[in-house]
Design brief:
With 390 residues, the chain is α/β, with parallel strands linked by helices. The protein contains 14 helices and 14 strands. Helix 7 packs parallel to helix 8.
């Protein structure tokens, strides 16, 4: 499940779910996209236009909204594309990714752009202008940490800068960014529920956190200067469900689950269906600002491990750091030592603002999201046992 451009140190079975927007700089319309780009009775394009897909696309005025997504082959991207394809108010869906999402249909246009390359700024501006994009959804972020920190920095932090520089040259009506509530950081002084007014205090030395916080700063700076562009940041709680894959699902999929001796913090989740619904809500409406997207309720880690049917493996926090650091260096851990703080201290967010301003109401509670994941994981466990030779 790794993208074609996967870094040699990037963890397998993860990056395809996270992002695959780094690659060769070229554009390719999806199969059947030409039919969606031109109306009936439209005169044939001249030979020069046929040589340029972007010219052919720009010649047709869309009869509806045009939404572009980075990280289109990621979990959030491909599911959002599937929903947008079915929306009669959406004329075109523009995927900025080297890998075509498997949910694309006749509305999909694929443009392969390497966001880590300096030339990507001009390429992004060209695509956004030619496709007449009005809404850009930036999903090109890792859902799990990777030892390939330099590559991750180029993809997330530098890639976001390139994307926004290109967006400044286009007339966008809306920008939407995916962020995560774990960026608030796990601290003993945290309140029971963190609001959008609380600062982001995740470990700045951990690249997985630092790059995402830098992307938020870039988006906020863009929003402060851009006139007529709505900038929305959605901070999702850890996403859980039957089909999503990330560091959390791998943590709960293990028979022995590491916990911190003497600590039992509260966690919260957002079901994958509710996370996708929140992004669709942000696409459909205008909601400037930052919003926590979380499921109702919280659960202590001990209850989560018990409901998952796993065996807790309590470790002294003084010994856990060196142990996880060694395992992470050997590519045998699911996350670096900085994640151990979330096994000690609370980091849960308040979703009141999203409910009040956006009208977002999660269908699944934190407990229900966990149980839905557990049901699917038990089926996977059985299948693995059946497939394992005696």
């Amino acid at each position: 499940m790794a993208p074609p451009s996967e870094h040699p140190d990037a963890p397998a079975n993860d990056l395809a779910e996270q992002s695959s927007s780094a690659g060769v700089d070229r554009a390719a319309p999806a199969p059947g996209a030409d039919a969606a780009a031109s109306g009936p009775g439209e005169p044939a394009a001249p030979a020069s236009a046929e040589a340029s897909p972007l010219s052919r696309q720009a010649s047709s005025r869309p009869r509806g909204r045009v939404v572009a997504l980075t990280g289109a082959a990621s979990f959030l991207g491909r599911n959002l594309i599937g929903i947008l394809e079915e929306d009669p108010g959406i004329a075109r869906v523009v995927a900025i990714d080297i890998k075509p999402p498997d949910t694309g249909g006749s509305k999909l246009r694929l443009h392969s752009v390497d966001l880590t390359a300096p030339a990507s700024e001009e390429r992004v501006a060209e695509v956004l202008a030619a496709e007449q994009v009005d809404t850009l959804v930036h999903l090109c972020f890792l859902s799990s940490p990777t030892p390939a920190t330099a590559w991750a920095h180029e993809l997330e932090s530098v890639g976001t800068m390139h994307l926004l520089h290109g967006a400044r040259q286009a007339s966008l009506r809306k920008l939407i960014l995916w962020s995560q509530t774990i960026l608030y950081g796990a601290h003993p002084t945290n309140p029971n529920f963190l609001t959008e007014k609380h600062p982001l205090r995740a470990d700045p030395d951990e690249r997985f956190f630092a790059d995402k916080m830098a992307a938020e700063r870039e988006f906020n700076a863009f929003g402060a200067k851009a006139k007529g562009t709505t900038v929305t940041i959605l901070r999702t709680a850890p996403i859980l469900g039957p089909t999503v894959q990330n560091y959390l699902t791998r943590y709960l999929a293990r028979r022995l689950v590491m916990t911190m001796l003497g600590f039992d913090p509260l966690w919260q989740f957002i079901h994958e269906v509710d996370a996708i619904a929140a992004f669709k809500l942000a696409i459909d409406g205008d909601f400037p600002g930052t919003f926590n997207i979380v499921g109702d309720g919280v659960l202590p880690v001990s209850t989560i491990v018990r409901l998952a049917g796993r065996t807790p493996f309590p470790v002294l926090h003084s010994a856990a750091g060196p142990l996880v650091a060694a395992l992470w260096a050997a590519h045998a851990a699911i996350a670096p030592p900085s994640f151990l703080r979330y096994l000690r201290y609370v980091c849960v967010a308040d979703g009141e603002k999203a409910a009040r301003v956006m009208g977002f109401r999660p269908v699944y509670t934190t407990r229900e999201a966990l149980l839905d994941y557990i049901s699917a994981q038990r089926l996977r466990d059985v299948r693995l046992l059946q497939e394992t030779p005696a």
